[in-house]
């Protein structure tokens, strides 16, 4: 298994982060909360079969597991510990998910759908930053039908949450503008979560 190459650009040590969650035997997000969010905020696919989906920056895989009810999910992350945790959780919930330790920037595979729950390269950077723009172009190449971009945000938008700039409060209108070059965009904003939908 090839070690991903872009792990050194992040502010947070994700190997230590996911190791701590493994030691405490709990996912980053509660399974029941993710399941409820998925049911209430994301429409089910209409293809009549389980289309392919990539979970971009899947972390410990809890979202991939929830999404696997309706999709054939491949979860990709560049944290070895994150992927280890993901496989453990998939076994726990008896979920059929394929997890890959990989660099999104180097991923060539195509999927019908993409899911992106605020990984650091989006959730932690302003849209005009070099990192956000680099990954925006990369993820746009991965899906052929639709992408869901989910991120926590609260007004006033377009600002960092703290001086350390660990989280960016995105403006949904700016996200629509940013991703509109890749398809038709729409969004919902409820309980401090933006759900942006990009249809190619």
Q: Quick summary of this structure?
A:
The chain is an alpha/beta fold and 200 residues long. It is built from 7 helices and 9 strands; from the N terminus they run H-H-E-H-E-H-E-E-H-H-E-E-E-H-E-E.
Key traits:
seven-stranded mixed sheet, single chain, globular, disordered N terminus, 7 helices, alpha/beta, two-stranded antiparallel ribbon
SSE layout and pairings?
Layout (H helix, E strand, L loop, with lengths): L13 H10 L7 H11 L10 E5 L5 H6 L4 E6 L2 H13 L5 E4 L9 E7 L2 H4 L6 H11 L2 E10 L6 E2 L7 E2 L2 H8 L4 E7 L2 E7 L1
Parallel strand pairs: 1-2, 1-4, 2-3, 4-5
Antiparallel strand pairs: 5-9, 6-7, 8-9
Helix pairs in contact: 1-4
Description:
The protein has 200 residues and is of the alpha/beta class. It has helices spanning 14-23, 31-41, 62-67, 80-92, 120-123, 130-140, 172-179; strands at residues 52-56, 72-77, 98-101, 111-117, 143-152, 159-160, 168-169, 184-190, 193-199. The radius of gyration is 16 Å and the shape is globular. Mean pLDDT is 93; it is low at 1-5. Helix 1 runs parallel beside helix 4 (80-92). The protein has a 7-stranded mixed β-sheet, with helices on both faces. It has a two-stranded antiparallel sheet with strand order 6-7. 34% of the residues are buried.
